[in-house]
Amino acid sequence: MIELGIVDIREINKAIKSVCNFDFANYALTSFKQRLERIMKLYNIGTADSFIIKLQNEPDFLDIFLYEISVPSTEMFRDPSLWRWLREEFLPQSVQRNIGKFKIWLPQCVSGGELFSLVILLKEIDLLNNVQIIATSFSDKSIEFIRNGYYDLKKIEVSDENYRRFNGSRELSAYYKTDRNMALRDTSLIEDVEFKKLSINFDNAPYNNKLILFRNNLIYFNPSYQDRVVSMLYQSLSVSGYLILGIRERIPSISASREFELVNETESIFRRKS
Q: What is the mean pLDDT of the chain?
C-alpha cells in the first residue's frame, strides 16, 4: 500500500508547481494526500520520485492528474431541496425578468452531475433556451467525459431517488440509457453549453454571471485559499448575482461576508451586494 509522507507531498507539490504554476499546498492536506495515493495506485506508480518523473516527462499525464485530483459530484440532483428552490423560487422569475440570456457558470465540472441536473430542470420549466450556461473544468478529460454523456451506472439509483424527491415532471430514466456498466445521458440537453478549460488559478474565469454553482468545493481548500477563491467568484458575478455553495459551506471570512448577503442559510445561497 502506498503511503506518502510530508516530505513526499512537499516534493510532489514543488514538481506540480514547476509544471503548471499552481501550488497544491492550498488544498486541505489530508484530502490531497488521499487523492494523491489513490492516483498513484490507479496508475501503478510506486514512489513519489516516480510520480514526479512521470509528471515532468509526460505532458498528457498532467491533464490526467488534474482530472483525477478533482472531486466529482457523486450524484445528480444532490440535495433535492436546492433544486426545488431553483425551480420554484428563483429561476423562473430571475430568467424571465433578465434582459438577454441569463448567464450561469459552473466552475468545476468533473462528472457532469450538477450540469445535467441543471439542464434537466431548465428543460422541464421550458427555460433551457433562455439561459447561457458555461461549464468549466481544469481538465480536458473531464470535459470530454461530460460531453460524451458518460455517467457511472452505480450512481444512477441514488440519482433516481434524488430526482423523485425533487418532484421532477418525468422519470429520470427519460434522460439516459444504460450501456453495460455505464449510463449514457442525453447529450442533446448540453448541445448549447459552452465548455471551457479553466486555468487552475481561475485567471480566465467568465464574468457577469447571474448565477454561480460552486457546491462542495471549498471544503477541499485551506482557509486562506477559500478566501481567495470566494473573492474570485465575487468578481465573476454580476451586480446582485447569486453564488450557491454546498450546504455545509459558508463564506469563509469577515471581509468576504461584507461582500455577500445570505439569502438562504439552509441551502448556502448568497447574493453579491451592490
A: 92
Domain with 246 in it: what CATH number?
Answer: 3.40.50.150
**Structural domain range at position 248:** 80-272
116 and 33: one domain? no
Q: Are 51 and 84 contained in the same domain? A: no
- Identity (one letter) of the amino acid at 158? V
First to last CA, the chain: 52
Contacts of 272 (CB under 8 A, 6+ apart): 234, 237, 238, 239, 240, 241, 242, 243, 259, 260
Overall number of domains in the chain: 2
C-alpha cell at 139: 481538465
Q: Tell me what pLDDT residue 25 has.
A: 85
Q: Is pLDDT of 20 > 90?
A: no
Question: Is 117 in contact with 84 (CB distance < 8 Å)?
Answer: no
pLDDT per residue as tens digits for the range 150-176: 988 888 999 999 999 999 999 999 999
pTM (2 d.p.): 0.92
Q: Provide the 3-class DSSP secondary structure of residue 53.
A: helix
Q: End of a domain among 19, 36, 69?
A: 69
DSSP E strand stretches across the chain = 102-106, 131-137, 150-152, 176-179, 182-185, 194-197, 209-213, 237-244, 260-264, 269-272
Read off the pLDDT of residues 190-210 as tens digits, 9 standing for 90 and up: 999 999 999 888 889 999 999
Integer Cα distance of 235 and 215 in angstroms: 18
Quick one: which of 34, 28, 33 has its CA closest to 12? 33
